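ARCHIVE CARD
Drawer: 12
Card no.: 0347
Subject: one protein chain, sequence and derived structure
Cross-reference: see card 0346
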Amino acid sequence: MAGSTTAERGERQQRSSGPPPLRRFTPPRLRMIIILALALVLLGAGTVWLLYGSQWLRAEEVSVSGTRVLTPAQVREAADVPVGEPLISVETDAIEARLRRKLPRIDAVEVVRSWPHEIQLNVTERTPVLLVQKGRNFVEVDEGGVRFATVPRAPKGVPVLELTLSRPGSRAASLRRFGEGRLVREAVRVAGALPDAVARDTRTVKVLSYDDISLDLGGGRTVAWGSGEQGSVKARTLTALMKATPGARHFDVSAPTAPASSGS
């Protein structure tokens, strides 16, 4: 009997190499898929209920850290945390905004969910570097020039700002050119650049004009600082000048390359 031709063999090979037959899920495999899908649905529903519906993850405590002048009670009251609500639904951004708005003394605040029941309020208060006298009270000014609180008594170790006259009309000219806010910021800039020992001993920062700022220290000593520019250079120069002439009462670092001291 004659063998198959080449064409016949090709046809048989093509039929044998065709697409594989479709597989059908067997009943046990189908049941396993259904069981897994139901388990995922139940797990998701259980998680949602646990976070929003159960009593286990509710905001029940509010802790406060970082206060110095403010009290924890003041911070809690201003924060107005919705105690009893699901912890997951507490709007931390809204709490931060309320604290900044109601308590300007707060410079930075972090609101943290601490599972399972606590909201933590971590605050950083502004530090006054200068005081502006207003009647019998004092307005505290921080290193950014922000006036954030009015207090009846001057905090210890914080100098008072004085806007005074150096020459007739000079203060008015500076006010017209720079504005009172700019002159206050220059005074703040000077106060922030002072060496620690000098800062602790500074009683008054006097602004006579933009480039004529001076300091009154304890013991009747004075420092002519000039403008707020080159603050770090002037601070180093003043420290060296005070060490070189410890008995002097008047120091001039307005031109830090040619400092001077006098008096005894």
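Annotation on reverse: The chain has a mean pLDDT of 84. The domain at 130-262 is CATH 3.40.50.10960 (Rossmann fold).
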